[in-house]
Design brief:
By secondary structure, the chain is an alpha/beta fold. Helix content is 40%, strand content 21%. α4 links the parallel β1 and β2.
């Protein structure tokens, strides 16, 4: 969905982010947050969850509403302030801790096997491919054996026609947003394959919104909490 490049512009005005992302997604983003929370908390009682790039807390609060104990991290202090105010109003069932912390700092802040689940929604598209690889591998070691990974983000649609239309729409929007903010996002290439290559198992993909957005869920293998653990055999795989 090419309109997600507008996220960069919206992030400069945190107070209007939720309203803007709601308009850009046609009101569907809240459903995505709830879907991510359902996948994250399935088969676990009050799991401890790390939300990478939590923004204004949509996913974190959805997980907390289902009883999870959540740590939401983001480098944008203004977004975290909005998240804290939303949490106070929501009175979520589970506690949420907000930390001004970047994805590259996870390894320094949290020990191995700290979480039952790690989630990331619309944050991988702000990372370089090398950063995505690093964060996935660190996430695997911070998960307990069998822990759950859920990543939701913009991806390039499959099919020549869809891909061409998507590229034209996104390119024009990206140029405008870059002119205004000097930053941009990029669709995540081969997201399911990247998750497999990082050593995760049982990778499942849900595609939506004209095939330009997907939710990928996977499971950490036994021994995933060891920082030096070997990747599971068969981690390779094509995009589903």
């Amino acid at each position: 969905m090419g309109s997600f490049v507008w996220m960069r512009l919206l992030e400069s005005t945190a107070q209007r982010y939720d309203r803007g992302i709601g308009l850009l997604s046609g009101g569907r983003m809240a459903d995505v947050y709830r879907r991510i929370a359902a996948l994250t908390t399935a088969d676990a009682f009050s799991p401890r969850v790390l939300d990478i790039g939590c923004g204004t807390g949509g996913v974190s609060l959805a997980c907390a509403a289902r009883g999870a104990t959540v740590v939401g991290i983001d480098v944008n202090a203004a977004m975290l302030e909005v998240a804290q105010r939303k949490a106070m109003r929501a009175g979520a069932a589970g506690p949420v801790t907000w930390l001004e912390l970047g994805a590259m700092e996870i390894e320094d802040r949290f020990g191995p096997a700290t979480f039952e689940a790690v989630v990331a929604c619309l944050s991988f598209s702000e990372m370089t491919p090398d950063e995505q690889t690093y964060v996935l591998e660190v996430a695997r070691t911070r998960l307990r054996p069998g822990g759950r990974l859920v990543v939701a983000d913009e991806v390039v649609p499959r099919g020549t026609v869809r891909r061409a239309l998507y590229g034209l729409r996104r390119w024009s929007l990206a140029l405008l947003v870059y002119a205004l903010t000097q930053t941009t996002t990029r669709p995540v290439a081969e997201l399911p394959g990247r998750v497999r290559a990082a050593g995760f198992l049982d990778v499942v993909v849900e595609r939506m919104w004209g095939d330009a957005f997907c939710i990928v869920r996977a499971r950490a293998p036994a021994g995933s909490g060891r920082a030096d653990g070997a990747h599971a055999a068969g981690a390779r795989g094509a995009d589903a």
